[in-house]
Write a structure and sequence with these properties.
The protein is α/β, with parallel strands linked by helices and 317 residues long. It has helices at 8-11, 39-56, 70-81, 114-128, 150-161, 175-183, 208-216, 231-234, 238-247, 251-260, 275-282, 291-298, 304-312; strands at residues 12-15, 60-62, 87-92, 94-96, 108-110, 132-140, 166-170, 186-187, 190-191, 195-199, 220-224, 267-270.
Length: 317
């Protein structure tokens, strides 16, 4: 390892959002997946990515109840491979309803209730058991009913008290507000949440200050959608493409390297659709961006409302 290389196992996690179900919104995904995207083919593709990730040093895998069969695929891989040193995080709050159809009218349904939490926790444990090291509320927003549901808050606090760290992910243009409000939640003087997973990328860095505060307060901070659902790879802005060429790598590696360069030291969750995409993403560990390059890349940021409006228009394919 060179002096500038970041240990992959310390800072990078692999998410299975793009592999656990046949349809998703990521650009550049379809051509990377097995033809037809059948169940067994997707399982095999997931195993291949997990095998390569483990060989590269990745020790954190992120899944969710709504990521189709991601928990089932991961559970099978863990049972087959017997790796005892893998950290597993999952999420509850969305239910996958796509029935493995590419053209489903609805792919997932959101519900932040105590009943949904209890049911999905049971489902997650049934598949992954004690492997779960972090259980997260999926896509918490400032208007979520969770914030006024004492029963649900109490149930989350109880899980944390039983030794399973509890976190939340965020989405939308008001992520920073959701992060700050969620970390204020306490039960009997004890914070409910100990981790956050937010969208942060070169086009949407608005949650950065709140995530820096969380990190300073001792919270675990993960960053998702590091390549903006493929936008930064399929249609990279010219400064990003140029900087990537100068480093002899792809735009995805530079985009992930920009995440790793943040002084609040987040864990970057990458979401490859194939072993080739995984290798390209992991190239970030060898990219050391200069301050002037980081400043140029920071100028790519979009207005948050516009970013999230664009994201909402990305079709499931």
């Amino acid at each position: 390892m060179t002096d500038s290389e970041i240990p992959v196992g310390d800072r990078i996690a692999v998410g299975l959002a793009a592999l656990g179900r046949p349809a998703y919104i990521n650009l550049g995904r379809v051509e990377a997946l097995p033809p037809g995207r059948g169940f067994e083919a997707m399982r095999a593709a997931t195993y291949d990515v997990l095998d390569d990730a483990y060989r590269a040093g990745v020790r954190w895998i992120d899944v969710a109840r709504s990521y189709g069969s991601s928990e089932e695929f991961l559970a099978g891989w863990l049972a087959d491979r017997g790796h005892p040193d893998v950290t597993v995080s999952s999420k509850w709050g969305y239910r996958y309803v796509g029935e493995w159809k590419l053209d489903a009218e609805v792919h997932e349904v959101k519900e932040h209730t105590a009943a949904r939490f209890a049911g999905q926790w049971t489902e997650s444990v049934g598949l992954l058991g004690k492997a779960i090291s972090l259980y997260q509320v999926h896509s918490l927003t400032v208007d979520s009913p969770l914030f006024t549901d004492d029963r649900l808050i109490g149930a989350l606090a109880e899980l944390a008290a039983d030794g399973v760290p509890v976190g939340f992910s965020t989405s939308g243009p008001s992520q920073a507000d959701a992060v700050r409000r969620a970390f204020e939640l306490e039960v009997s003087g004890t914070p409910v949440f100990s981790a956050v997973q937010s969208t942060w990328n070169l086009l949407e860095p608005s949650a950065g200050p709140a995530l820096a505060e969380a990190r300073a307060a001792g919270k675990r901070v993960l960053v998702k959608e590091t390549v903006a659902n493929g936008r930064l790879v399929v249609e990279p802005p010219s400064p990003l493409a140029r900087i990537a060429r100068e480093h002899g790598t792809g735009p995805d590696a530079v985009a992930v390297a920009a995440v790793l360069a943040q002084d609040w030291r987040p864990i970057a969750v990458i979401g490859p659709s194939s072993t080739a995409q995984l290798a390209e993403n992991l190239g970030a560990a060898k990219v050391k961006l200069a301050e002037e390059e980081l400043a140029e890349l920071a100028a790519l940021a979009e207005e948050p409302v516009a970013y999230w409006r664009h994201r909402s228009c990305l079709g499931w394919h």
